[in-house]
Specification:
The complex is a heterodimer of chains A (279) and B (255). Chain A has 279 residues and is α/β, with parallel strands linked by helices. Chain A has ten helices and 13 strands. In chain A, α3 (93-103) packs across α4 and α5 packs parallel to α6 (167-184). Chain B has 255 residues and is mostly helical. In chain B, 78% of the residues lie in helices and 0% in strands. Chain B has helices spanning 2-18, 22-28, 30-45, 50-82, 85-89, 95-125, 134-159, 166-177, 189-196, 199-209, 219-247, 249-252. Classes of the chains: A alpha/beta (279), B mainly alpha (255).
Chain lengths: 279, 255
């Protein structure tokens, strides 16, 4: 089953095309990564899926519902977080969660339990009465993720979830995302320009650049796992450098007539793929 | 039930933020007291008799009207200032829920302010509070505030940050034409038409009639205008939310 089905999505701002005809299918239950540099159109695309922006052309179905006709229904079943979490500053952790629970129409009888559950799940108990503007960036991100689960969404949009975070907090955030996905089995659509993040989290990925999807598929399709040996050797006083597939090591050693100076093992990662694709 | 919960979410947010904010508390108690005390003293200095109640009713009305308008505007402004607007609009909320929910807190704040101002004037300046017509007068003030508040929301969603200032200035424009400190009959003819298009003119005219001032407007027309304005504004508010999603202003104001 498809969680998101988009065809020919275009968006223009002041006559300038931000999305130039995006086609994308995202399967239910997967973590799908939208990768691309700043200004590629990632946030615009994810905002269209979350019904925060209306496209100028094309069709988008979220959980089988047309975003033009059933945006209200869709909003009940999705939620969003972003890398720079921002919530009403003077509201405490608990007040913020209560507010968002009410926004999703959660009745008083179950609201209290839901808020307490999330506070406990994200280990915010100690800070439940702390104002948002007094929280550290790590705690703000935890509240951000807690808020995004307030309505038990079927699809969670994570827009650059670790941008601007210290490395240790970014690692913790990625672990939380992985845990949420494993526990709840929800579809996660993630935008990032950190290729490592996509490698760690995503099942499938799409590369987006200048408003177009330039390639998409399973993560493994891009990273073959094949290792490359970069060998430096000396012959007749000169240094030579060649790259070979790691499986051909026996052949290589027979071929090289000279003294091996250095061997480097290279592994193709998403960053290399992205650089190749954006050429 | 969901509709009610979402509506109350905006009341809850405004209440939770405003109770901790000295400025919003000052809006309810300090500024109103200073305003009515200053005007009451000025009236005594000028030896005004009947005109004193005319001016003070105008001042009280303006303050209550503005407070109820401000709360509706704050429903969006608190989110704009916190850059959290997208989290509000990613939830299944409608314009009517935003406006009514936040207005409920505006009503409570306006009522508290009215009570404070009436008490000060009654206790220290011998200003009589006419009970006749009081309920209709207050209802008219609060609904006028709702109407102007929705207009502010429409402007904010259409033009973004750059029109934030109208939250505090739009009520002053209304003040100019609705006879807060003078009867609308002194306005030039063409401005009289503007005055007659403002429901607040009718509300003031109605309540002042109980203080012996000649009534030149029909209160029923004032409420009919309010009903028409509110109906049109609710439709325009929904349309401005849709438009904001088209222009991307919600995302821009969240960055």
């Amino acid at each position: 089953m498809l969680a998101i089905e988009a065809k020919g999505v275009k968006k223009f701002y002041k006559g300038k095309a931000v999305l130039k005809g995006v086609d994308i299918d995202i399967k239910a239950g997967e973590i799908f990564g939208l990768l691309g540099p700043n200004g590629a159109g990632k946030t615009t695309l994810i905002s269209i899926f979350a019904t925060l922006i209306v496209p100028d052309e094309g069709s988008v179905k979220v959980l089988g519902y047309d975003i033009f006709k059933h945006s209200q229904k869709i909003r009940r079943m999705v939620n969003i977080t972003s890398g720079n979490p921002n919530f009403p500053w003077s509201l405490t952790v608990k007040e913020n969660l209560n507010y968002y629970a009410m926004l999703y129409g959660i009745p008083k009888s179950s609201r209290k339990k839901k808020v307490e559950e999330l506070i406990s799940l994200f280990e915010l108990d100690e800070y439940e009465n702390t104002r948002f503007d007094e929280l550290s960036s790590g705690l703000k991100q935890r509240l951000n993720l807690a808020k995004s689960l307030i309505n038990d969404p079927k699809i969670l949009f994570l827009d650059e979830p670790t941008i601007g975070l210290d490395p240790d907090i970014a690692i913790k955030t990625r672990k939380l995302i992985k845990d949420i996905h494993e526990e709840k089995g929800i579809t996660i659509v993630l935008t990032t320009h950190y290729m490592k993040e996509a490698e760690q989290l995503c099942d499938r990925i799409a590369f987006i650049n200048r408003g177009r999807i330039i390639s998409s598929g399973k993560k493994e399709d891009f990273i073959s796992g094949e290792k490359i040996l970069k060998i430096k050797y000396m012959r007749d006083g000169k240094i030579f450098e060649k790259e070979f597939k790691a499986g051909e090591i026996r052949k290589i050693l027979n071929k090289i007539k000279g003294e091996i100076v250095d061997i480097e093992i290279l592994e193709k990662n998403l960053e290399d793929v992205f650089l190749e694709l954006s050429k | 039930m969901s509709f009610l919960n979402r509506m109350l979410a905006f009341a809850y947010k405004n209440y939770s933020i405003e109770k901790k904010n000295m400025f919003t508390l000052a809006e309810v108690f300090i500024i109103p007291i200073i305003t009515v005390v200053s005007l009451a003293l000025l009236s005594e200095f000028l030896n005004l008799k009947q005109e004193k109640s005319f001016i003070l009713i105008g001042a009280i009305s303006f303050i209550a009207f503005q407070i109820s308008q401000l709360d509706v505007s704050y429903s969006l402004l608190f989110e704009v200032w916190s850059k959290s607007l997208k989290h509000m609009f990613v939830a299944p909320v409608r314009g009517v829920e935003i406006a009514i929910g936040s207005w409920l807190v505006g009503c409570i704040r306006a009522l508290l302010s009215l009570l404070t101002m009436f008490s000060v004037l009654y206790l220290f300046f011998d200003v009589e509070i006419k009970m006749h017509g009081l309920l209709l007068f207050i209802l008219g003030l609060l609904l006028s505030g709702l109407s102007l508040g929705i207009l502010t929301l429409i402007f904010l969603l259409t033009f973004g940050y750059r029109v934030e200032f109208i939250t505090w200035t739009i009520a002053s424009v209304v003040m100019l034409f609705s006879g807060i400190y003078y009867p609308i009959t002194i306005l030039p003819d063409f401005l009289l038409y503007v005055a007659k298009a403002i429901p607040l003119s009718y509300i003031l005219d109605y309540y002042r009639s109980f203080y012996g001032f000649e009534s030149v407007l029909n209160i029923k027309h004032g409420f009919a205008l309010l009903a028409i304005y509110l109906a049109v504004e609710f439709v325009l508010l929904e349309a401005s939310i849709k438009r904001a999603k088209k222009t991307g202003i919600i995302i821009k104001m969240s960055e």
